[in-house]
Design brief:
The complex is a heterodimer of chains A (509) and B (805). Chain A has 509 residues and is an alpha/beta fold. In chain A, 31% of the residues lie in helices and 12% in strands. In chain A, a hairpin with a 2-residue loop joins strand 13 (492-493) and strand 14 (496-497). Chain B is an alpha+beta fold and 805 residues long. In chain B, 36% of the residues lie in helices and 12% in strands. Chain B contains 24 helices and 20 strands. In chain B, the strands form 7 sheets. In chain B, strands 4, 6, 7, 10, 11 and 12 form a 6-stranded mixed sheet that branches. A 4-stranded antiparallel sheet of chain B has the order 1-5-9-8. Chain B is globular, with a radius of gyration of 30 Å. The chains are: A alpha/beta (509), B alpha+beta (805).
Chain lengths: 509, 805
């Protein structure tokens, strides 16, 4: 059944006014091939019967995975605490096993051996903004999964094929901006105009969010590549320091403007429909229009059950929780959120710096998880992390006050929520036949070559495989995977596209 | 060509006048018409199908045995275009150009819109002069392969095509891709432009479009082009004022530039903040807690960016050396350090001074000074990088962000790929790899803060880290050769055509220059030799970077983006880059570069019609432009703002007071979130293939904050309880001149005329004007201030104004 263009616009932008349609028409000449195909081919699809959301927690600057997940056993495996300790202790960057005692985990995938999480993810001494026991505890309850040695890849790559230049390498490895773009863009062979959440929205908005009053994707941290689709724009709002009814409300109009104030508001809104021949004017009008439309839908406030830490990431996730609580008002079924915390770029000062950030992240993610349980959405909302890259196993500098690390590659990602299958390590096996990278220099998984090798792991699992597993749970069907992740076919195995790492439960029926 | 001769003649004249003007100090002069002619794509007479060169079959009669028979001959004709095969080449004819020496294909961009309203861009392969009737016409060859890669393939059928040149858009024409027809709709107002009509227009009784160089009105001096004057001031300053507009009208652009190059900076009334460096761990009398701080503002002034921030805004509001301030600010968004990590305001002041001091100087000198600047050393970890524990941070960023960039570039800034031009989705060639980063890192090991007493470190203050003097090598060596932290082994720098210093040799281990203790060289001498070697290596490495062919287009494009337009044509980048290169060794290189940026024909002109011309005003420019337009003042009757936005009368959280407005809009000066600046130079606006860096800061949240900022400035008069000398005074505007205009004309027309000129340089559309006028006249004519506020709010918050164009 072919729907007309105007109907598409109404649905894709969330019930826009006639004025808005006039503004949007020009830009929404912008209909992605994917969205067009959906309109042309689909029978009238039905909205899904449940609610689902993905929440991306981006660790800006590149979190050091080597101090985030640590082998905590001394025998029986190629990866041991000793390898880690030898590589890092002399410069003051290694935890002791005593320090790791409170955050140990057992890993079924690797013979039930003990690993440990960064102590910042465990129980903290009571203090300001310590509001719960952190996310380590969720491992035992089966709500925390780890996808290990994930990174940007164009195709499956090993140390040998990397060093031998036998594979296409990700574009500009080790550069912050490019690696962030590849995680967010969901492809590593070239620069991307769109992010993978944006393409998920391009693909699903018309089907899953019919009649929704706000876009599928919301950022609590400004414009991000991750959130931009070809035919869909994200909402961007401030954190919970600003109430939802004020977050997109321009000052000065009050709640029920009359007289000259109403005349001003009307003119303010009308001006966005003129002079759109300049692309920058049109783009600015487009964003402002989206804000004004969403604002009108956010005026009724809701409250939460859970105490969130008053940190940046805490306030961001709290705002997400408030948005989710309004899901019925907003008539929305599928949402993707973006939050971030930084600055993980610890070339120096990592010991205190990383701990501080991971405590903030852990406290906020745990609070968010508990709030979702309270909202009855424990298994319907999944938090997952991304980061620029990991950091060198070999430290930069020395001494616990100054020691840091440099840019590296494969890293470990957290997935939190009742939608995971079980607490375990996930991902493809690397050189040591486990999904955890071998902590050895100039051999096994190290992409560095030669005597100065510093330990930059060749990822065994690509960002696309990680993201596609999440997208599949969210409701992206196999038939759409290639349009959301253009290079996913590079990671096929003999059985077909290997885009399901198994850490998420099946999609909604 | 005739046109070119006279054009060149005028340029010589300008040069002569300029030199006279410079000698005489300030001397009125007349600048030439800044307007380029509007390019015209020629069409057939019947409709707007583009004229093209096509091989046309012509039936001929041929005599043969058994009688006459039809045959076909082929000939090249200039005809209205039918359809071209996709990925083939097409020829278009272009009239009414006035090309400069060397101006060619990369000055043009050709856009096509298909029936789905998708926009494509087709590479221009060549442009060749030809003659048609009495006109100089150009034959433009384009490749019908989209180069943006955003929409995939255009749908078949007719597409609407226009071309841009120097910020101007041509008329719209039409031709087919694969086939003609389809659902394309012409833009409103499209008319045929056949050669006969264009020829008559150009050479008939009327003056040709834009050839105004000869139309000087004698009783004007300086620069009479009022629209372009305003645009120029938006590009070169923190916003036009009545006084600066009048100054340029009188003296012209060249003399104004000469005045700006000579103006004292910072303004005499606004010297750089000069607060003593403080200990890394605040003492209790300067820790911002309790009541014992002495002075009470100690923490605010020393440990936050309050002083550089407020100083920066005072200079933007009132400074005379606007151009230097603007260029320094542009450089600060390339060479980024940030108070997010840098502890003390004074540290940032010292870093910013280098940018301002070199804003009209030499880029290589800027590179050296910032490399050794302590704030940079701290921010990007070079101060900690040693031969045994090298830190790649600064080495990577100086290449990626400050000098050569990630990709190999042509001299016009377009990327170099394995294919020429790059194919859609093809990655450009990399400028360097990890090995280069490692090698440069090793060159940069061993420097740290200047902590030696005596003449070496004149600004050292006991108990503080020296963030004033440049970093030095091995400050902690203390005469012990084992304390050397510089890597004295050989290094390999970037290799490219003509590259200097590709190989930096290892330091000698014997002889008088030995870096190791050896016969005749004791530890002290060896350390001195290491210092010499390291400093020489540093200069060699910086020369290796500076001479890379990427530097000119890389740096110049960023400066153009900061000042003029987000997506400059490659030709514009190329022209400025050529000036950068021609002045490589000049101590006033950047003066020439800034002049080239501002006087380029792509920057100049009364009316810009290219849909991709201009830039979204970043929050800082947005705010300062509005404030300067309306007599920026302090709150509560203070004649001058102190640079703060005082929304509360508390000093318990002074940085928040200062930055409040800018944190909402996501650009707090001296507080960039990362070394990648507030926004990336290659940011592509979501839902488009349009480059718009500042749009990285424009989302639903910040868009509303921009309107709220204007609301607070226009409608509220922040009342500050000035009962304590250390409370920020705040900033407000004064609309009394507009109020008078408003009172003088109850129709609101005078008010609108003034705002159109003042804020929109005459580009306000009729619909925009009437919409605002309706809202203005909803207020009684007796409330003149209310009407002025209504009008200013609506213009200032409009997207039309938010884009500098």
């Amino acid at each position: 059944m072919k729907k007309d263009r105007r109907e598409f616009l109404i649905k894709s932008c969330g019930a826009l006014s006639t004025v808005a349609i006039a503004t949007q028409m020009r830009h929404f000449g912008l209909m992605s091939a994917e969205a067009q195909k959906v309109i042309d081919d689909s029978p009238q699809p039905n909205n899904p019967s449940d609610y689902r959301a993905l929440v991306c927690v981006f660790m800006q600057g590149g979190n050091d995975g080597n101090n985030t997940v640590i082998p905590n056993h001394t025998a029986g495996s190629s990866n041991t605490f000793d390898l880690y300790n030898t590589a890092r202790s002399s410069q003051g960057l290694a935890f002791t096993q005593a320090q790791l005692a409170g955050t140990s985990i057992q890993v079924p995938r690797i013979g039930n051996l003990a690993y440990a999480l960064h102590p910042g993810l465990g129980i903290q001494t009571p203090a300001t903004n310590i509001v719960n026991n952190g996310i380590h505890e969720l491992w035992a309850s089966g709500k925390l999964a780890l996808v290990t040695n994930v990174g940007t890849l164009v195709q499956p790559t090993t140390r040998a094929t990397y060093i031998g230049n036998q594979v296409v390498k990700p574009f500009q490895l080790f550069s912050h901006s490019d690696q962030v773009s590849q995680y967010q863009g969901g492809r590593s062979d070239t620069q991307s105009f769109t992010g993978w959440a944006g393409r998920v929205a391009d693909s699903r908005q018309l089907i899953d969010n019919q009649g929704a009053l706000v876009p599928m994707v919301t950022s609590i941290s400004g414009a991000q590549l991750f959130t931009s689709g070809q035919s869909t724009l994200p909402l961007a709002i401030a954190d919970s320091n600003t109430l939802l009814n004020a977050v997109l409300n321009p000052a000065g109009f009050g709640t029920n403007p009359t007289g000259s104030t109403l005349a001003r508001l009307n003119a303010f809104n009308s001006l966005r429909t003129f002079d759109l021949s300049n692309n920058y004017v049109a783009a600015a009008s487009n964003v402002t229009e989206l804000a004004m439309q969403a604002n009108s839908k956010l005026q009724t406030l809701v409250t939460l059950n859970t105490n969130f830490p008053n940190t940046s990431i805490g306030r961001q996730l709290k705002q997400v929780a408030l948005m989710i609580k309004k899901r019925t008002d907003l008539a929305i079924n599928r949402q993707v959120f973006y939050v971030q915390l930084g600055s993980f770029d610890h070339h120096t000062g990592q010991v205190a710096g990383q701990n501080n950030l991971l405590v903030q992240m852990s406290q906020a993610m745990r609070a968010f998880y508990e709030e979702m349980v309270a909202q009855g959405l424990g298994d319907k909302v999944t938090q997952f992390t991304m980061a620029d890259f990991s950091r060198t196993l070999n430290p930069a500098g020395t001494g616990s006050g100054t020691v840091g690390t440099d840019h590296a590659w494969g890293n470990h990602m957290f997935v939190v929520g009742g939608g995971i299958t079980a607490s375990n390590f996930y991902g493809m096996d690397g050189a040591n036949s486990t999904p955890f990278p071998q902590l050895s220099f100039n051999t096994a998984d190290d992409s560095d070559n030669g005597s100065g090798a510093r330990g930059r792991w060749v990822p065994a699992t690509s960002v696309e495989q990680y993201a596609a597993t999440l997208a599949r749970w969210f409701g992206v069907p196999s038939s759409s995977m290639a349009s959301v992740f253009p290079k996913i076919a590079n990671f096929s195995n003999s059985g077909g596209i290997n885009s399901d790492l198994g850490f998420m439960q099946p999609p909604a029926p | 060509m005739k046109g070119r001769t006279s054009h060149l003649y005028l340029r010589y004249l300008v040069a002569l006048v300029l030199s006279l003007g410079t000698v005489a100090g300030i001397s009125a002069q007349t600048d030439t018409d800044p307007n380029s002619p509007m390019p015209i794509l020629l069409t057939g007479a019947a409709d707007n199908r583009a004229l093209t060169r096509q091989t046309v079959a012509r039936p001929v009669l041929k005599r043969s045995k058994g009688g006459a028979a039809q045959a076909v001959a082929y000939e090249e004709q200039i005809v209205p275009a039918g359809a071209f095969a996709r990925d083939s080449r097409a020829v278009l004819f272009l009239a009414n150009l006035d090309l400069m020496e060397g101006e060619g294909a990369n000055a043009f961009r050709v856009y096509g819109r298909d029936e789905k309203d998708h926009i494509f861009r087709f590479p221009v392969i060549s442009i060749e002069p030809t003659q048609m009737m009495r006109m100089n016409v150009y034959e433009l060859t384009i490749q019908l392969t989209d180069e943006t890669g955003f929409w995939g393939e255009p749908s078949g059928g007719d597409i609407a095509v226009y071309l841009t040149w120097r910020g101007l858009a041509s008329n719209e024409v039409k031709f087919g891709i694969d086939t003609t027809g389809g659902g394309i709709k012409d833009s409103p107002g499209v008319v045929p432009m056949p050669p006969e009509k264009v020829d008559a227009q150009l050479s008939g009784g009327k003056p040709s479009i834009g050839r105004g160089g000869k139309q000087i009105v004698p009783n004007y001096v300086g620069y009479k082009w009022s629209g372009d004057r305003r645009r120029f001031l938006e590009q070169a300053t923190f916003g036009p004022t009545a006084a600066s507009d009048e100054r340029i009208r009188r003296v012209g652009l060249h003399v104004w530039l000469a005045e700006q190059f000579a103006a004292p900076y910072p303004s005499l009334s606004n010297p750089y903040p000069n607060f003593p460096l403080q200990a890394a761990n605040p003492v209790t009398t300067c820790d911002g807690s309790g009541t014992d701080d002495s002075p009470p503002t100690c923490f605010r002034d020393s440990y936050t960016q309050y002083q550089p921030q407020t100083w920066f805004f005072r200079e933007a509001y009132y400074g005379d050396a606007q151009l230097r301030h603007r260029v320094a600010w542009a450089l600060a968004q390339i060479w980024v350090t940030s108070g997010v990590d840098i502890q003390q305001g004074q540290h940032e002041v010292e870093y910013f001074k280098i940018l301002a001091n070199n804003a009209f100087g030499n880029y290589r000198e800027l590179m050296k000074q910032e490399t050794l600047n302590p704030a940079f050393g701290d921010y990007l970890s070079m101060s900690l990088s040693t031969k045994n524990n090298p830190n790649e941070n600064y080495a990577r960023e100086i290449m990626q962000l400050f000098t050569v960039g990630l990709f190999m570039l042509k001299s016009d800034g377009t990327p170099i790929c394995a294919h020429d031009p790059c194919q859609v989705g093809e990655s450009p060639l990399s400028t360097y790899d990890q090995n280069n980063v490692n090698n440069l890192t090793r060159v940069l090991t061993g420097w740290s803060f200047c902590q030696l007493s005596g003449a070496t470190c004149p600004h050292l203050t006991s108990g503080t880290v020296n963030f004033i003097d440049p970093m030095i090598l091995n400050p902690a060596a203390n005469g012990n050769i084992n304390n050397n932290r510089h890597d004295v082994t050989a290094k390999t720098m970037l290799s490219y055509n003509g590259a200097p210093n590709v190989n930096i040799p290892a330091c000698a281990t014997t002889g008088s220059t030995s870096c190791a203790v050896t016969t005749g060289v004791n530890a002290a001498q060896a350390l001195a030799n290491i210092q010499t070697y390291a400093n020489t290596s540093l200069d060699q490495a910086l020369d290796n970077l500076y001479n890379h062919p990427n530097v000119a287009p890389f740096v110049c494009k960023r400066l153009i983006q900061q000042m003029v337009t987000s997506d400059p044509s490659p030709a514009y980048v190329g022209r400025v880059a050529a000036v950068f290169d021609a002045n490589r060794s000049s101590p006033t290189q950047m003066k020439a570069v800034v002049t080239a940026i501002l006087l380029d024909p792509e920057a100049r002109g009364d009316n810009k019609t290219d849909p991709n011309f201009g830039k979204l005003r970043e929050p800082v420019q947005y705010a300062t432009n509005i404030l300067r337009l309306f007599n920026v003042k302090g709150a509560s009757g203070n004649p001058l703002s102190d640079g703060s936005f005082a929304l509360t009368n508390t000093r318990t959280s002074p940085p928040l007071v200062q930055v409040f407005e800018f944190s909402g809009m996501a650009q707090v000066p001296f507080m960039s979130p990362t070394v990648f600046n507030f926004y990336p130079p290659d940011y592509v606006i979501p839902n488009t293939a349009v480059v718009g860096p500042e749009f990285a800061l424009m989302n639903t949240g910040t868009a509303v904050q921009r309107a709220s900022f204007v609301n607070r400035m226009v409608f509220t008069s922040p009342a500050i309880a000035v009962n304590s000398p250390d409370i920020p005074l705040g900033t407000t505007i004064d609309l009394s001149d507009l109020q008078a205009l408003s009172a003088a004309d109850s129709s609101g027309g005078l008010l609108m005329d003034d705002l159109n000129n003042r804020m929109m340089h005459g580009t306000m559309s009729a619909s925009m004007r009437s919409t605002i006028l309706t809202a203005v006249t909803s207020i009684s004519a007796t409330d003149a201030l209310g009407r002025a506020r209504q009008a200013v709010y609506l213009v200032a918050t409009s997207s039309q104004y938010q884009v500098q164009r």
